[in-house]
TrEMBL record, chains A, B, C, D, E, F, G, H, I, J, K, L:
InterPro entries: DPS_DNA-bd, DPS_DNA-bd_CS, Ferritin-like, Ferritin-like_SF, Ferritin_DPS_dom. Coiled coil: none annotated. Signal peptide: none annotated. Residues 18-153 form the Ferritin/DPS domain. This is DNA starvation/stationary phase protection protein. Belongs to the Dps family. SUPFAM superfamilies: Ferritin-like. One of its GO terms (molecular function) is ferric iron binding. It comes from Streptomyces fuscichromogenes. Pfam families: Ferritin.
Length: 156, 156, 156, 156, 156, 156, 156, 156, 156, 156, 156, 156
């Protein structure tokens, strides 16, 4: 059914589609992980970490929407369902139960670090086949690396 | 570690905690499902369904936050992680790939219907042990039933 | 034609439907009455009563919309047409022509008083069959009683 | 009691007063009719018609207020009570119960058409006696004819 | 010096210029008079009259600007200087010193009445030579007559 | 296909349709011309003329939309396509390349002057057949004449 | 003097009046206490606690107004004067002078805990006599318990 | 514990500290008194006095915060607790129960008058030791004297 | 009639009243003069001077209101009527007819200079009798001198 | 006349200038075409297509301004006049007269497709000579491809 | 060249000019120092100090603009160039590289303290020659002392 | 101390760090230079240049913050202190004292030109090592070249 007239060749499209689908899953999971810790963090830095995590969530939700709609715009059906996210995410397991503030910060440093590594690979592989998608991924990487810095500075 | 001074007895807390955790999982999954269809819907009603689904997402994300923080306020650690959501959600499987607009509307009717049934049970069981949590669940049910009506009216 | 999947039993639905339809008619008529006096009030307190009545209109129009859509959400067609309102409203006849400010205030005290009495009965009868509808009616009653106090205080 | 110093002669005032009172009744009924269908419309176009009708309601409520206050400004008491509206409105009977979307659009085409015809007559008769009132009626007619076009285009 | 290319004949321009210059002087003086009473009113209705007068000032200042710029647009230099206003205004002398609230309302009824009479004559004489200027004067008259009603209703 | 129920007779409609179509073409071209000079103006007054031209563009785009939708509301299909505009516009050729600021101002004086002349004729011919359309054209003329004055004053 | 027509029986009114008056005193004192610590807190967490306390103040001031006006709406004169608050408040003595941040957080945990206990009793006793007042008290309790959680999490 | 590096000598600081602490207590009590009457006023002027009092509350709450933080900025712990306010306020006893509108206005005239007298003394004594604190007190006095005028004008 | 309880002695009040009344007249005339030139300026700098003058008008209207209400707050009736302004203003005659842009700027330099000189004298004479009024006049002087600089810089 | 100091070599500038001028013409025509169909669309999807087209217009107008000013910033005079647009646009002829909704959607799919193809070529050729211009064209292409997807999804 | 008509004598002007120029340099450097630490702070309090410093920057940038324009208004050319700031600032050397949060807070305490001492001297010396400039410096001092308190409280 | 996990190799990081540090210094100095001229410009174009320079300042301050935080995100401590800026800036000496408007425009053309040249080199050298930083520098260059065009057009 339904076929979008894609501006990319089949080979290019395959590369870009994988990059976008991978980015989507990582970003959706990052939002879920950040919310989980937003609700469960405890400790003296509770309030500041609680607020900071919602800024991560806002940024990441916006980017996941952009990435998914970019896939649709290229004629590729995006998949951001819970089961897919649980199976394919690049983020390691988030701790259950209450989380001490320093552990919360460390968890974000790890999660962001993992996503950034994969996102930079996506920036590299999409450069040739689709500079438009690459530009979107570059913008997302900039934001993630900014949040990454802040959490690292906070646990220094 | 960390213990909040709960205003409820242990038995009441157990009932309320289950209701809130169940509501949280349903609402997080509902947001993921609505976004999935928001990106994948096709057909003549594409635009109107696409926009309507984002209103569902906005409503449901707000409510999931309220429910999770209500659990925390009672001293119960909420769990909204991807794996938990994938495992415990009350919503049936959302179709992958492109979704015809009438199927999209039908999927929402089903998903909302499933969550509403469970939510009404939670309203009943929390009435006695914690009218404060019940009041939150009543407000959520009202919103879900309003969205439910609109999708039903749309497929009439 | 068109049948919404109602979460209520038939008996409960009948009770709730009557309550919502009655509330709708009362609220629509209350808005018309308040506007009528808003245009026709004269006297030293003209400006303050004129402005106060528009606040009543704003509140009441919002609530009438909520009540009508709540009926639709339960699968019951709401009826807010002029003839229905003229026939079924719980508000006594509003005076035609210019209205002296003290009479205007008194008219609102009476109209609000009549609607509040009926609204409290609706709060009582809906408690068991549908706490969701009841919660909406409780919120409306709170607002109406606040306006009622202000007009009473004004004619003291 | 209360007499405003009218800038019009008695004969002119009589003509203008009738035009304004007629316009008021038509506009109040149009708002009630549009709300009625806003709540009761069903079908694939539910959402777009539902939203479109609230734009009609917003426009028409604003204009009914302007017309009523224009009458007051000329010293003529306006009458927008439910019974008056039910008796004098130029709009034919609005269907009760659920309304299929195409019927909803058709009902608005009819209702707007009826009001426009009468409004254009009022524009004509007020030109001489009171260009100020006429200017208000011209502005209202422009808005009604714009809505009329949209509903006609929608059922084309 | 400086000559704007006027779209009107010389005779028409003379008529319109007089109407606009007259309107400008009346409106500037009306704003000064309303401010004067805004500062000097005393009595039980102090606050409501004080606020109402600032609404008159806002309306009238906006209109005086429109009228003056309309004159400029026709190539006629407008004159709104204090001496000109003091000499040519159609408003009778405003009382100095404190003003009792009922006297304040009466003063506004008189001032607005005087300006309205002259403004309606301007509407009549500009109809033929320049419907564009007439349309502006009609809109101003509508606003002034609305304020006139409110102050009359307030002293009823 | 598609026929809107027009409130005008055929003869009147023909007159009004020509006036609206003519106004549409003039306004669309005026916006294009103003943008062209907005981008190409140079000289000491660069910034002020650059900004002023965007105000012209904003005003004129709004009015062109109103005029086109007024035609649609009367059942007449409006035509604002590039070729039509290039062929039928009442504005003389706009200079290509960089434009000295005083020439830019002069070009606007000319373009506005040409459109105003034609717009005033349209105000005259529509008075009888459709005062509603005439009122729209009067409002547009007022705005154009205000801009005309400003550019004339600027080159004085 | 002045008697509002109360919708409650005398016995019910007595119960509800006591609940509302008690809630008012507690909330006014809570706002004063939170401001006191807002000004006097010192330590590494100064800024975050300083800001957090103003959020408590905003919430609590809003609720105290609602509660007092609810009493008025039932015809019961509310008393929120300094002496009454100093005498009847349920909050223990707030420390004078500078307050270390951890002590500040602990003081809020205690103050909120004390008010919540009393507020839950008020929710229970008002359920039968006045569900409208109860609904207001439930909403307040939800907000207080949310703040309570945050301060507890912060000192964990 | 905690010592701020004060820019004032000990003697100057003592004078300024007393002035600021006195101002704080007066302003907190003024807000409580204004709220008390806001809730309890009755009579024809109910609405206007009710609204006017909330403007006093807004002004005064803002100023009390500025004054308290000014004390902290000079290294002096401010005290705005209920007991301190009840004991040290310069405002006479506020009547309990319902308050007739003219009595409400008179009570505000008295309360504001009492605070203004003391505030002017504080302006005088702080001039030499700390023009920064004095400037804050001057601004507060200006606002209080404006409110004082309005209530006096209202009871004239 | 009406006597405000003045916080100043009779002698002090006389000095302050003269300063405020003088300031009021100067500021009202300054606004009229600035508007006059706003409408009549021509030349290459038309737009920038036209806009700049409206900023003067906005500033000055705000200050004239503050000054007049300050007089009222001290129990002195302010007089800002056209005839008073025409007679007592410290601004020299403003040219009638079109004004070349450089002359417009020069006129503002003169007018502002004249008012500033008088305003600085008022700052000096009010220092002792009423620092509250002085503070208001200082703030006004700062704004006037800022505008004065800009017009001087513009004609350099 | 007027020469901007270009940061590009002559050869590079020629390439970039052609790309920007081509993009400008396409975007201006796209806005005209979208507006044309916005006014002329009819059919059941009238409202949704009507609104969607205005979003295209908003996006495209913004981008055309950016592209034209980018040309100016490189010292190249942009040309967006009606005749140039009519002659050089890459969009095929837009149908005149009323347009059925499905045809309207198809027309947009075609027009956007044509512009996207050309825009992607411009992205390629500008990469080397001017990455700054390329970045702007990439952003435009992303937006156009998003709109392209939506219209395709809508006609699926 | 260019001479502003100064309202001060030469001797007074010299004193005031030195005070304003000194204040300008201190404030510009304070903004640069605060930004430097905003970017380089690390440690558990990273986020709160990072945000707090931007509030300092906002305040100080606003004040530096006011001070510089005040100098211009008195006819004195202000100098806020990098070299001047580097040479004349009253703030000691800001540490390069990463800054631990407690050191960051201490650095601000020192920097603010140094500027406050100099600012208070400027308040003293400008009192006689120019109360207008003094009033500006008083307002700045109040803001700086408020920030000073907060950083001191934070390192307590 | 503090080490951020950099996503770049050491060699790449060195290149990118130099580019970012260089950009930071240029942008901070550009803001200082623009403010300096903002305060000191005189001449007929005073107001337009004065306003235009603040737009430069706003743009450049935003970009300097982005660049500094990008350095931090890569683990490189940014240095924007006054002495560093005075020593390393790529902008030539800004004239002290009053600046004639045409000289002001020329100074900006020079300053922007110098920064653009260096910024384009940074775009080139960062392309390979870090496309994320490059993308930020490209966006900044676009903005600077837009401002550069405007000032050049203004002195044409």
């Amino acid at each position: 059914m339904y076929v979008v007239k894609s501006p990319l060749s089949d080979a290019d499209l395959k590369t870009v589609a994988e990059a976008l689908q991978g980015a989507l899953v990582d970003l959706v999971d990052l939002a879920l992980a950040a919310k989980q810790i937003h609700w469960n963090v405890v400790g003296q830095r509770f309030r500041t970490v609680h607020l900071q995590l919602d800024e991560v969530v806002d940024t990441v939700r916006l980017h996941s929407d952009t990435v998914a709609e970019r896939a649709s715009a290229l004629g590729v059906s995006p998949d951001g369902r819970a089961a897919t996210v649980a199976a394919d995410s690049g983020i390691g397991p988030v701790p259950g139960g209450w989380v001490k503030d320093s552990d919360a910060v460390a968890a974000l440093v790890d999660a962001l670090g993992a996503v950034i590594t994969r996102m930079r690979e996506r920036v590299t592989v999409t450069a040739e086949p689709d500079p438009v998608s690459q530009d979107i991924l570059i913008g997302i990487t900039a934001d993630l690396e900014k949040h990454h810095w802040m959490f690292q500075a906070e646990n220094a």
